[in-house]
From TrEMBL:
Gene Ontology BP annotations: cell division; chromosome segregation
Source species of the chain: Elusimicrobium minutum (strain Pei191)
One GO cellular component term: plasma membrane
GO terms, molecular function: ATP binding; DNA binding
Entry-linked Pfam families: FtsK_4TM, FtsK_alpha, FtsK_SpoIIIE
Ranges that cross the membrane: 26-48, 60-82, 94-118, 138-163
UniProt-annotated binding residues for ATP: G422, A423, T424, N425, S426, G427, K428, S429
Family to which this protein belongs: Belongs to the FtsK/SpoIIIE/SftA family.
Protein name: DNA segregation ATPase FtsK/SpoIIIE-like protein
Amino acid sequence: MQRKGYYLYKKKTKKQRRQQKNTTNVFVFLFWALAFALCAWLFFIQWFNVSKGPYGERVAAFFFTYLGHSAYLVPIFFFYWLIRCIKHKSVNIFTFLVGMCVSLFSIASVMTGLRYIFKGSYIEGGSIGREVFFFLQGLVGSAGAVLFSLAILLTGVHLLFAIPWVSTAKYLMELLKEDYHSWHDARAELKTKIREAKEAESKTTKTVIENKQDEPAVAAIRSKPEIRRPVAEIIRAPKPYDKQENSAKKEAAENIVMPSKKADMKDFKLPPVSILNDPKNEGILGPSDEEIAMATALLENTLKSFEIGATVTGVSPGPVVTRYEIKPDPGVRISNIVAIANDIALAMKARGIRVEAPIPGKDAIGFEIPNDHAMMVTVKEILQDPKFTESKAVMPIALGRYADGLPATTALEKTPHLLIAGATNSGKSICLHTIIMSILYTKKPDEVKFLMIDPKRLELTLYEGIPHLYDPKTTCEDVNVITDAHGAVKSLQTLVKVMEKRTKIMELAKVKNIEGYNKWAEQNSEEKMFYVVVIIDELADLMLQTRAAIEDSIQRLAQMARAVGIHLVLCTQRPSVNVITGVIKANLPSRIALQVASKTDSRVILDSLGADALLGKGDMLYQGTSDQKPHRIQGAYVSETEISSVADFLREQGGPDYPLQIAQEQQNGGRPQDGLGASAEEMTQALTLILERRRVSQDLLKAHFGSSARATNILSVLEMKGYITKPEGSNRWEIHFDLIETGLAELKEKSGGNEPLYETVYK
Ligand SMILES: Nc1ncnc2c1ncn2[C@@H]1O[C@H](COP(=O)(O)OP(=O)(O)OP(=O)(O)O)[C@@H](O)[C@H]1O
């Protein structure tokens, strides 16, 4: 029985256990699902004040009445408990409930205390909070009640979360200790470094002074570099600064008096340099010999500290920077020296260092270090320099001084077109003025004329009314600085026509360029051609409004104008690819980059870095057509007062004078004012002559009209009208007699014989 019973019992238990397990699983799942649902519902009714239902309202009100705002934590604690139960299986519900109650009651008590202390506080501790707080307050006062409540809260939190306080405190202490130790070590290291640096500096200074007294002594400086001061002697003491005179000049600049007559070229005088300001610099250029010796030692020691062997072989003090020439020891890579440029700048406390590696034509690297005191380079000192005065160039330009102090000049006809770009206030306008002044000081208005475009109406208006002004679209009586974009486009387009006509004239005179033509003109008693310099201050403003037209004109002028004596100088403060487009860059080979904000801007202007490290105020990089690398130049300075004085001097001699332009001549009728082109009567005579003689030549026309100038012009008009052509490779004119006969008949039909049929051929 017992056996049977046992057997039965055993069998039943197995089955039951399986069933029981399944049932238990379902119940367990149901239990947890319900528990989570309950928690979620509690959370919802506590935290959100919508659709609570009657029970929800009551439960929420219940918790709020007893616990105040701490009731928000109830569902969170329950969630925490459920998650812990699932994770750890055995969580003591009793401990949890006690922990939760202690935490909630103490939080409620703290809340009541805060409400009590800070009157009108929004938070509420509920009735339990009030009970606990006032009980404690009765024993230890308000602040004490809050503090004790917090202490009780810690106990509750400990029960709930079983925080290992001791090990946590230990861990925090360790962290704090570690932080303190690393701070302490870093401080000690920094102190040592500062002390070492100070010691090194004082040692270097001592060695330099000792070396000065006793040359052969062991020196920290490995070398005694050659100091080249090319301009020291031409820096003169300043003339007493005449404030009154300067302010008077300024006033005069504001009231420009326009000239009433045209300038007479026979008595025309170039402005004297005496009206320009003298250099204000006194003494030597750049740092003193002692300062150079110290900087040399510091430079060499800094290189040594990076384990780079190099010697300073030469020092060239310039007006704004001083160039130290460093010759690396055999086996030392240039790239290693270039790589530590910033560290050298730091050691030398320099604002910025530009490295020229290597210096073209030398076995050395150039370190350009800014001087403590920058010296101003005046336009006067460059205009007076033999390099400028003895220049064989047609249009010599005074740029300023190179980094080594030598005067920097160029020839505008060789540039042949120039782009000036830099950030605002970097010195673009001053650079532009220096270029204009260089020409005004060397060339008469019949030699060089300016087509000035200034959309900003700021800088170039100072030159209004000077006899050098030119605008092919208007008469010389109405010419002015062009300030509107559409006017600028029209002028440039007309200039393109002028350029094409000049090319034709040169073909007729069988010369290749303006120099050749002017020589030919001299030999043949003809009028010479004048050079045209197009100045555009702020290209960006024009590009914004009339991009396509401007770009097209600039491209056409830049490609062909050099031979006919037209040169472009464009200026912009926006060195972006939208303004300095590929077309513009390709056609303006010479560039001046002033200080720019970024490396990208420098690349846009020069296709290389460097302009971003410039110092501003006329500090520039000049890249000429034949230069492999840009040269650093401190631009010459010319003041507004000086410009006004020069412009006044020029205006006093008369205003602009140049041939009339196409459209107006056709309206006015008659032969052009300058004797160019041909009237209908002259054409009738010329065509009759060709028909009679059955040939045409310059000499034939000259013999008839009495001047080779007239003969050239009539010849060019005949060619343009298609009466005569010159086949390629031939020197003889081909005469189209049928066309001449028709043309002659048409001319005779028209009355007067002075009808303006023919376009002016421009010089
Ligand atoms: N060569 C120079 N030597 C000394 N100072 C200069 C030189 N060039 C410019 N500066 C100083 O920099 C200032 C700004 O120069 P400038 O007006 O030519 O700058 P900018 O680039 O044309 O500015 P913006 O784009 O605003 O017209 C000048 O007022 C002058 O004080």
